[in-house]
Design goal:
This protein is α/β, with parallel strands linked by helices. The protein has helices spanning 3-8, 18-28, 31-38, 45-56, 100-110, 125-129, 146-159, 177-181, 212-216, 224-233, 246-255, 276-287, 302-310, 320-352, and strands at residues 58-59, 74-76, 79-81, 85-87, 114-117, 136-140, 164-167, 238-243, 259-262, 293-295, 315-318, 365-366. Strand 10, helix 13 (302-310) and strand 11 form a beta-alpha-beta unit. Helix 5 packs parallel to helix 14. It binds ligand FNR. Ligand FNR binds at residues 37, 88-91, 118, 120, 139, 167, 241, 263, 265-266, 268, 296-299, 318-320. Keywords: Flavoprotein, FMN, Oxidoreductase. This is Alpha-hydroxy acid oxidase. It comes from Allohahella marinimesophila. InterPro entries: Aldolase_TIM, Alpha-hydoxy_acid_DH_FMN, FMN-dep_DH, FMN_HAD.
């Protein structure tokens, strides 16, 4: 897409990177909404580390490689991806665009990119599935009652989703001070429509010595028994999102999960967690070479994708940039944002001397 064409379709001329989408979106969103999206938890140490640790890694290039058979595609859980990049599950997308997840899905479909739809989507999971995506997974937050979780899973199965991604790193909400200071509240018209029919079971009464967090919220937190139950209930492959510890990764592999997503929720859960790129190599070592390992949190450049693959990821997910692109230019913005990332990644492969994903190994990066 030339810059002149972009302008015709309302993509500002100076939007040439994912960071540019954030810059422009921040002039179009309300302050509270912007802070809600950008915020990390607490002092945002983990949020910063996600970027700093990517930036610290240097690439070791090779010259004179043969690109006659160059290829960016890979296979993941039996599906072919044109690029090792997917959209991370991101809640309540109607916050930034009237069509929300429907526009995101249409944009992703236009560039053949897979999408993971959040339990907290603001559009119906069936309508999203009708947007023509070639790869569509459903993210599951366990509901307080198993019947509700199962009802969601059955809907996703019927609608054609081909994998479940169970997010386990946020059983309670992280305290995102930046969003709190800005007074962010979900507007009334933006709701988790796929949960609308579920009534909340009565909460256990807390006595005065009980902690609201530890005894209140955590009473509903999923356990190993819930995950084992889900694995037995569905024939879809189940990945777990929010893994940082290699011991968890190995345990989940042994339990029968189909893969793990190394994630710290974009720095939004517990401040002080490691960056995902620094946690990746140990997770890969724990589960072996063949097991699907995905990574998110901080991916903003094609070179980040290359670094993540070099350290053992099969695929990366992009979170906040999809909201920024959606806010700036709807479906077209999402497609353009992904195209920018694809092109950057291809350029990184070309200039580091990696004609295929198999060539992207730890030899492509310099150890400190
Ligand atoms: C998220 N994320 C998230 N994760 C999830 O499993 N279910 C969800 O509903 C959401 N919702 C959500 C909303 C917003 C506003 C943000 C910013 C993030 C986390 C998301 O899937 C992903 O892990 C991070 O966004 C990745 O980090 P980056 O790419 O935003 O740096």
């Amino acid at each position: 897409m030339s810059n002149q064409q972009n302008e015709q379709f309302c993509i500002p001329r100076d939007v040439v990177s994912l960071g540019d989408y954030e810059r422009v979106a921040s002039t179009r969103l309300t302050h509270a909404c912007k802070e809600h999206i950008a915020a990390g938890v607490g002092d945002e140490l983990t949020l910063q580390r996600n970027r700093e640790d990517f930036d610290r890694i240097r690439i070791q290039p090779r010259l004179l490689r043969n690109f006659a058979q160059a290829n960016t595609s890979c296979e993941l859980l039996g599906s072919r991806l044109r690029h090792p990049i997917m959209l991370a599950p991101v809640a309540y997308q109607k916050l930034v665009h009237v069509d929300g997840e429907l526009a995101t899905a249409a944009g992703a479909a236009a560039v053949d990119c897979g999408m993971i739809v959040s339990t907290l989507a603001s559009a119906s999971l069936e309508d999203i599935a009708n947007q023509g995506l070639s790869l569509l997974w459903f993210q599951v937050y366990f509901q307080p009652e198993r019947a509700a979780t199962l009802a969601l899973v059955r809907r996703a199965e019927r609608a054609g989703y081909t994998a479940l991604v169970v997010t386990l790193d946020a059983p309670v909400s992280g305290l995102r001070n930046r969003a709190q200071r800005a007074g962010f509240e979900l507007p009334e018209h933006v709701t988790a429509v796929n949960l609308e029919h579920f009534s909340r079971p009565p909460q256990r009464a807390l006595d005065s010595n009980d902690s609201v967090v530890l005894h209140g919220f955590m009473a509903d937190a999923p356990t190993m028994a819930d995950l084992t139950w889900l694995l037995a209930e569905t024939r879809l492959p189940v990945l777990v999102k929010g893994v940082l510890n290699p011991l968890d990764a190995l345990e989940l592999k042994n339990l029968g999960c189909a893969g793990v997503v190394v994630s710290n929720h974009g720095g939004r859960t517990l401040d002080g967690l490691p960056s995902t790129i620094s946690a990746l190599a140990a997770v890969r070592a724990a589960v072996g070479d063949e097991y699907p390992v995905l990574l998110d949190s901080g991916i903003r450049r094609g070179t980040d994708v290359l670094k993540a693959l070099a350290l053992g990821a099969n695929c990366v997910l992009v979170g906040r940039p999809q909201l920024y692109a959606l806010a700036v230019a709807g479906a077209l913005g999402v497609a353009h944002m992904l195209r920018l990332l694809h092109t950057e990644f291809e350029t990184a492969m070309a200039l580091s001397g990696c004609p295929s994903l198999a060539d992207i190994t730890k030899d492509c990066i310099l150890a400190d």
